[in-house]
Amino acid sequence: MFSSRFCGLNPYVPGEQPSDREYIKLNANENPYPPSPAVEKEIREFHAASLRLYPDPDSSDLRESIAEMLGNGITTDMVFAGNGSDEILSFIFYAFFDSNRPVVFPEHTYSFYPVYAGYYKIPVKKIPLLADFSIDLEKTAEADSSGIIFPNPNAPTGIIIPREKLRDFLQECGKKAPDRAVVIDEAYIDFGGETALPLLKDFPNLIIVRTFSKSFCFAGARLGFAVSSPENIRALCTVKNSFNHFPVDRLTQRMGIAACSDAAYYRRICGEIAATRDSFASELEKTGWQVLPSKANFLFVRKEGLAGKQIYETAKKEGFLLRLFNTKGLEDFIRISIGLPKDMQALLECLKKL
Ligand SMILES: *Cc1c(COP(=O)(O)O)cnc(C)c1O
């Protein structure tokens, strides 16, 4: 009954959402703050009757708002909007990575990438991280491939690559294979990192992917976007229109436009999250924990003598959901999303007992 294609699938598993009790949820990098009041207003004033009509298939007004918010010379035809960045990543794998040459990404990275590669039967080459857990850019640029993808900051480490290093990396990639797509997934860039947007004008093979889920408090609404050359954006539209004409619904398009109009609100809450992260990290370090240097809204931590599972289970008993990675080489780490200051204080007390 099932196709052989289907039988080969190996799906992504998101952070758990148990309902046996109330938890402080620090396992999916969700934002602890609500969306901007401008978004709430948009929802209140939305005309339910308009739902009988299909949305704008191209999300034109939304893309214009995103382009305006981004600045850096970005125009509407350089922006693609999708149903969360996960959907856009899927379109990117389909449009830019070949099935006869590998896609290259770090050994430890966003665990959806190998899932898409499996879905489209694209071979994978994983590059081990360096000793300090940062991405090995030299080996990444050298490897033979039809394309490269990694998050910046990387997940689950939180480690950022500065823009000027990325420029050198893109130059190296260009020398080796100028027509190869380089995809930078900036899901966490708003928490203190330097965006690669200014590099787009020099590198037409660069594709930047962003999500509203984390920094814009929209995980439940599903909205993401990609920024690249108009030619690459047209390619993504072709894939979209071969799959689902209307990935972004009417209400989400309106909410996205409202969110873009209140960038100041998001700068403020992302700043607060970054400050909570940094003080939580230094408190943990004082009690003997190792904390990787993070520019994201999460920390990747471990403590000598403790297994990740032990940390995860102790925290869960006390009502905190953290993210455990059952991946070789990461067994003793735990990923902690940054929540409200009071929740992080309570978690700190819990972890100190370990
Ligand atoms: C959360 C995340 C995404 C997915 O974002 P959605 O827009 O919610 O689909 C993509 N890439 C990375 C690295 C992420 O952490």
Short key terms for the protein model shown above:
354 residues; alpha/beta; 4-stranded antiparallel β-sheet; 12 helices; globular; binds pyridoxal-5'-phosphate
Description:
The protein is α/β, with parallel strands linked by helices and 354 residues long. The chain has 12 helices and 13 strands. Helix 3 packs parallel to helix 9 (250-260), helix 4 (84-96) crosses helix 8 (230-240) and helix 10 packs parallel to helix 12 (341-352). The mean pLDDT is 96. Pyridoxal-5'-phosphate binds at residues 29, 84-86, 110, 151, 155, 185, 187, 211, 213, 219, 224.
Give me a quick take on this structure.
This protein is of the alpha/beta class and 354 residues long. It has helices at 4-7, 37-44, 60-70, 84-96, 113-119, 137-142, 163-176, 230-240, 250-260, 263-286, 308-317, 341-352, and strands at 24-25, 79-82, 103-106, 124-127, 147-151, 181-185, 206-211, 224-227, 290-291, 298-302, 320-321, 323-324, 334-337.
Strand content: 5-15%
| Radius of gyration, CA atoms, in whole angstroms | 20 Å
**What's the story with the biggest beta sheet?**
7 strands, mixed
Small-molecule binders here are:
pyridoxal-5'-phosphate
The order of strands across the largest sheet is 2-8-7-6-5-3-4
The residue fraction in helices comes out at 25-40%
State the end-to-end CA separation. 50 Å
Number of alpha- plus pi-helical segments? 12
Shape: globular
Mean pLDDT over all positions: 96
Structural class: alpha/beta
Topology as a string of helices (H) and strands (E)? HEHHEHEHEHEHEEEHHHEEHEEEH
Question: Any low-confidence stretches, pLDDT <50, length ≥5?
Answer: none
What kind of assembly state do the chains in view correspond to? single chain
How many beta-strand elements?
A: 13
